[in-house]
Amino acid sequence: MDAIVGVLFTASLAAGILLTPEPELLEALFGDFTKITPLGAGLTVTASLAVVIVMAKIMRPVTFSIIAPDLGHVSQLKTKTASLLFLAMLALVVALGVKFVGTLLMGTLTIIPAASAKNVARTLLGFCLASVLFAALAVLVGMGAAYYFGILAGPAIILSGVLIFLLTLVSRPFV
Asked: Which tens digit of pLDDT belongs to each residue from 71-96?
């Protein structure tokens, strides 16, 4: 499943680059924070809260569908419905984020914090919390670097996320 997501992401990114006029290419890849309106920000926050609520409701069936699909089926949990809802919530989050942060940065904020969290988390709850923490930290550090050094925010956020990933990779215990 992860490989399919990666292939589809890169294929749609390549197709988008081919279809996007060159002057708008940088904005399409990295977004434009200056175009965030109060209404857009409010709708995004509201939709994001709805996603969090739905995810809290379907966390158990999704966990079973990942760890032990047969056990989830025997326990009469609706694992297929939960998995479908999970994918819909992921698509909604990506669609909300692409408008403001661009395709490349959205891909970064969905993949790198999770990979970083996997390096340090021991439980599923710890993984979820660490993912959110690492994403927020990457944005804060990247935005700070963009302000301080006068560079583009999008690439600075991506590089901050990569730095966090490398730090978690080096600091994890080798088993």
From this structure: 655 665 677 788 888 888 888 887 77
| Residue 51 backbone class (left: φ over 0; alpha: ψ -120 to 50; beta: rest) | alpha
The CA-atom distances, in angstroms, between 2 and each of 5, 60, 75, 88 are: 5, 20, 26, 16
Q: How far is CA 145 from the centre of its chain?
A: 21
Contact 1, 66 (CB under 8 A): no
Give 7-49 pLDDT, tens digit per residue. Answer: 776 777 677 777 777 767 777 777 766 677 888 888 888 998 9
Burial of 95 (0-12, 13-18, 19+ CB in 10 A): exposed
- Burial call 18-47: b when 16+ CB within 10 Å, e when fewer: eeeeeeeeeebbbbbeeeeeeeeeeebeee
- 101 residue type, one letter: V
